Amino acid sequence: MGEAEAAALFTALGPAVIADLVKGSDPEFAPQMFLEMGAEFSGGLLRHAGTDFAAGLFGALGIDFMVAMLHTTGAQFLSDMMNACGPATAAGTFKTAGPDFASQLLKSLGVKYNVQMIKAGGTASATQLGQEMGLGFAAKLARGLGVVWMAQLTAALGGEFAAVFKATLSGK
Predict the structure, then answer these.
(1) Which residues, in sequence order, are CB contacts of 148 under 8 Å at separation 6+?
(2) Which of 42, 62, 101, 144 could be a cystine partner for 97, CB 3.0 to 4.6 Å?
(3) Across 22-48, average pLDDT
(4) Is the model's pLDDT at 163 over the cut of 80?
(5) How many Å apart are CA 49 and CA 127, to the nearest integer?
């Protein structure tokens, strides 16, 4: 079964059913499943399923479950999966889920995890994601994350943050 076929199955079942299946299993099932499928396949599945499905799935899984799962799979895996689904799908999923959900998820993952994820994907990937989100959504996301959290992220990223910020604003 390829990415498109898996996405068709997942969307036919719906985000709530998939979330119930994943959450109803052993707590280690979800991270192991994603790691076994691989970042490329997992990202492709989300790209084919679409942003509405992905946002619905994330909402149905909930912040606490997502944080536990993402800490188990690791920042490199999430970065690779986001690159595989593409910046339009990753940004669209955040936008569909809303700035409150997105900021709560990022905040709950912690500054260190986010720094690892951004560094794993590189500044070009982070810039594309920022451009796809748009300045309006990015501003709402930053407000949700708060000044202290953003300052900690900025300090931890150093020059990489400045490069992403400048490229995102300039559209290059």
Answers:
(1) none
(2) 101
(3) 89
(4) no
(5) 24
Query: What's the whole-number mean pLDDT along residues 15-34?
Result: 87
Residue-by-residue DSSP string for 132-147: HHHHHHHHHHHHHH-H
Beta carbons within 10 angstroms of residue 33's beta carbon:
15
- What integer pLDDT is reported at residue 170 of this predicted model? 67
How far is Cα 73 from Cα 12, in angstroms, rounded to an integer?
Answer: 26
Picking from 131, 61, 51, the residue whose alpha carbon sits closest to that of residue 96 is 51
**What's 25's DSSP letter?**
S
Chain-centroid distance of CA 89 in Å reads 9
Write the pLDDT tens digit of every residue in 85-106: 999 999 999 999 999 999 999 9
Q: Give the CA angle between residues 119, 41, 8 to the nearest 5°.
A: 130
Question: Residue holding tokens 């910046």?
Answer: 87
Global pTM value: 0.88
CB atoms within 10 A of CB 94: 25
Task: Give residue 33's pLDDT band: very low, low, confident or very high (50, 70, 90).
Answer: confident
* The Cα angle at residue 24 between residues 15 and 73, in degrees rounded to 5: 75
